[in-house]
Amino acid sequence: MVKFMKENLEKSGCAIGNKFIRAINCQAKISGGYVRGEGVLVCSNHMNIQDEVNQVVIHELIHAYDDCRAANLDWTNCAHHACSEIRSGHLSGDCHFKREFLRGYTNFRGHGEECVRRRVMKSVTANPHCSEAAAKDAMEAVWDVCYNDTKPFDRAP
Questions:
Q1: pLDDT average, residue stretch 52-61
Q2: Dihedral sign of CA atoms 90, 5, 81, 100 in order
Q3: Helix or strand or coil: residue 32?
Q4: Catalytic residue among 10, 60, 100, 132
C-alpha cells in the first residue's frame, strides 16, 4: 500500500524525493505526522514492530495525498483537518478490528466508524486551532462526504 500511495502522489503531480519519509525521535507521545513541505515523519522511538511503522506511513501518506490534490487545503481549518483524518482513519486500516482489539476496544459491531470518530477527535483536538466543540462540529459536518471519498482507491481497502 505504501508503494501504491507513493505512485498516486506522483501521478497527482506531487513529486516525493528520497527524504519524503523520515524516521525521527519525537518528544511527544505520537506515532508520526505529515508536515507540508517536509513530508512524512515517523517517530521511531515510539515504534515496536514494522507493522506499526507501515501503518503510520500509510496513514500519513493519505494526508500527503489529500494535501496534494486539494490546492486550498488549510490544516488550520477544523473541517479540512477532520476530513483528512476521516479519510486516513478509514482508508489506512487504522481501525481494522484486529488493531482495535489490540488497543483494548472489544466492541466489534460498528467498531470501524466508532474508531475513526474517536481517532479523528484525538487528532483534530490536538490542532491548536480547533477546540473540542469545533472538532466535533467539523467532523460531523464533513463525515458523509469524507468517509465515502476513497480516492486514490476504488473502494476502502
A1: 94
A2: positive
A3: strand
A4: 60
Q: At what angle do helices 111-125 and 132-147 cross, to 10 degrees?
A: 130
Its pTM stands at: 0.91
Which residue from 12, 41, 43 is spatially nearest to 26, judged by alpha carbons? 43
List, as own/partner pairs, every contact residues 65-73 make where C-beta atoms lie below 8 angstroms and the sequence separation is at least 24, other chains included: 65/5, 65/8, 65/9, 65/12, 65/14, 65/151, 65/152, 67/14, 67/34, 67/36, 68/9, 68/12, 68/13, 68/14, 69/12, 69/151
Per residue in 74-93, pLDDT (tens digit) is 999 999 999 999 999 999 98
Could you give the CA distance from residue 28 to residue 31 in angstroms, rounded to a whole number?
9
Is residue 10 annotated as a catalytic residue, yes or no?
no
